[in-house]
Amino acid sequence: MRDLVYYHLYNPQGVAHWIDEGDDEMRQAYLERFVDKEGQTYLHRFYQKYRGKSEAQSLALLTDGVYPLPHRLATVYRSVYPRRDLAAFGAWLRAKHPALSASDTDELYQKYSVEHFDLQDRGYLARIHPLELWLVGYLAEHPNATFSEAVAASREQRQQVYRWLMKDSRRRAQDTRIATLLETDAFMMIYDAWKRVGYPFETMTPSYASAIGASGDRPAALAELVGILLNDGKRRPLVRYESLDFAVGTPYETRLQMPQSEGEQVLLPQVAAAARGALVGVVEQGTAVRVKGAYKGPDGKPLLVGGKTGTGDHRREVFGPGGRRIASQVISRAAVFTFFMDDRFFGVLTAYVTGPTAVGYRFTSALPVQILKSLEPTLRPLIARAYVPPPAPEPEKPEAVTELAAGVTPVAPTASDGTRGATPVSRPAPKITKVVTPKKAKALKPAPRKIRNLEDLF
């Protein structure tokens, strides 16, 4: 997985190509993006901490983490309530420090005004994260504000808090933070590539662990991927029905046929062929060898079978100092075998146990492989039908078509008194009999109706 990430980072069109070019504008853009992202992370944490609390509760919670030196408390109060007067400030501060005189509170009130220090400096003086300091003041003025509103209002403050990071002397710190964003961008390119071959989820966690476990192993997605490999890298639509027949055996008989799709080439044919070879190796001499030779074609020869096995023991573990595991919770256990047979069949078998009961199971991917092997008698008729050639169409025989000669009309005979008789006499009309080929005979039939929607059937 790391090799894939590095490829998307450092190939000539990779997301990190600009680093070697010394593009200062890109560096600035990435730093601002990092600041905005990390600032929102901290802001969300602080919002959860103070949401729903009153002004007094928020101020008490904020100052609980501050060593109660007068200048620190003064910085906190003046930051949260910048427009409150000296009397309110003095009363609050002397409640914390009764020994302070009126001149002391007046000096602290003037010295630690928000006009004298920016947000980053005030956070440093109070030993509080600047965004926490800002958020408590914002919620004091907007107690019903949502998190989205707080994010929108703090755009300038989030950039201001990370002013230290923008200095040229912080080049190494900049590179470390930019690298995290570049790696995230590389994972997004991997996600786009995976999505084209059936990755079933709408998001992807930017982690090397995405290559293992349950990252993308929904059975339908795995089966579709094998189908892409069998189709030489083409992704074709998945269909349940190829045709629909209406009113069979009536004059209104209609068939709706699914049009054939050329599909989308999502993998190079050479890549698909190499992947098929690797899957065959798993069955021939790997973890799925027990299914080797189990399925045979009509000629008695073994079908070419390939596949990929996987076992997942999903746990949530907590580690303490020194890497010592202090807690472990079993989430689920799963085993899967994704397979294909010759060029006609492919699918997925999954064994899955979820919840606390999973701790009592120790099965591996050998279980679904054995199940596939045991299903051979059941699947044998299906496989046999797939290799039966379709019946050859019977040759159409010429058919005689009789047509009346143009312009000849049967008439009633003339009676002896010169009048027309009421009953016509059988007078054979001139006939033209010709033998036409099946192609011409079809041309004489009514043209089939075009069905554009279901209403055209009635």
Task: Label this structure with key terms.
43% helix; single chain; 14% strand; 458 residues; three-stranded antiparallel beta sheet; two-stranded antiparallel sheet; 17 helices; alpha+beta
Summarize, please.
The protein is α+β, with helices and mostly antiparallel strands and 458 residues long.
Protein model, in words:
There is one protein chain. By secondary structure, this protein is an alpha+beta fold. Among the domains are: about 150 residues, no CATH class; about 170 residues, no CATH class. The chain has 17 helices and 9 strands. It has a 3-stranded antiparallel β-sheet with strand order 5-6-7, with helices on both faces. The protein has a two-stranded antiparallel sheet with strand order 1-4. A two-stranded antiparallel ribbon has the order 2-3. Helix 5 runs antiparallel to helix 8. The longest helix is centred in the N-terminal third of the chain and has 27 residues. It is elongated.
Please describe the topology of this protein.
Blueprint: H1 2-10, H2 17-21, H3 24-50, H4 55-64, H5 70-80, H6 86-96, H7 102-111, H8 119-126, H9 130-141, H10 147-153, H11 155-161, H12 171-196, H13 219-230, E1 234-235, E2 243-246, E3 254-257, E4 264-265, H14 269-285, E5 305-319, E6 325-341, E7 345-354, H15 366-374, H16 376-386, E8 399-404, E9 431-436, H17 438-444
Antiparallel strand pairs: 1-4, 2-3, 5-6, 6-7, 8-9
Helix pairs in contact: 1-12, 3-9, 3-11, 3-12, 4-9, 5-8, 6-7, 8-9
